[in-house]
Amino acid sequence: MVAIAAGFLYASPYLAVHSMMAASRDGDLQRLSEYIDVPAVRESIKFAMARRLPATLGTDKSSNPLAAIGNAIGAAFLDSVIDATVTPESIALMLEGKPPALAGAPAATDDASKAASPAKPADPQAFYEDANHFVIEVARAGQDARPMRFVLARSGLWGWKLTSVRFPDS
């Protein structure tokens, strides 16, 4: 009995990933959203983007006193874009290796979507990061760059929820 419980405990994130990917593939956003802690994912993306913002804008606080103001404006703008854009729909696209649609942008047609990402992404790789965190690596369609990482955290004894998205370093 203990071996069965231990086996299920070990397999539980794989089952969650399988359910998430099936829900994403089937367009079942209600089922997919059960596996996503959207506020936590938004915060993780905001944190990652805030770390990249100065390098992206080419600002260095020590050499330019106005850089801090520019970074603050950029961060506020970025926060609102992330809040509007990070949804179960955009996460479903990212799980398929596709770029998310921007908030308010028209949805791409199937033909436009195929033209934008002609290559099918590699199958996702999944592994334990530690006892309470499980990682799904998804290659971006048509790109040889390092994959995006989706981090699931244990939710209770058997459950798992997506809490973080890690972008590859460019």
Describe the structure.
The chain has about 170 residues and is of the alpha+beta class. The protein has one domain. It has helices at about 1-25, 30-35, 40-55, 65-85, 90-95, 110-115; strands spanning about 125-130, 135-140, 150-155, 160-165. A hairpin with a 2-residue loop joins strand 1 and strand 2. Helix 3 (about 40-55) packs antiparallel against helix 4. The longest helix is centred in the first third of the chain and has 25 residues, at about 1-25. The relative contact order is 0.16.
Brief account:
The chain has 170 residues and is of the alpha+beta class. The chain has one domain.
Extract low-pLDDT stretches. 112-118
Radius of gyration from the alpha-carbon trace, in angstroms: 18 Å
Helical residue percent band: 40-55%
> What structural category arises from helix and sheet content?
alpha+beta
Mean pLDDT level:
82
**Succession of helices and strands:** HHHHHHEEEE
Number of folding domains?
1
How are the strands ordered across the major sheet? 1-2-3-4
**Would you count the extended β strands for me?**
4
The rounded distance between the terminal residues' Cα atoms is 47 Å
Helical region count? Answer: 6
The main β sheet shows up as:
4 strands, antiparallel
Q: Which percent range describes the beta-strand content? A: 15-25%
Shape: elongated
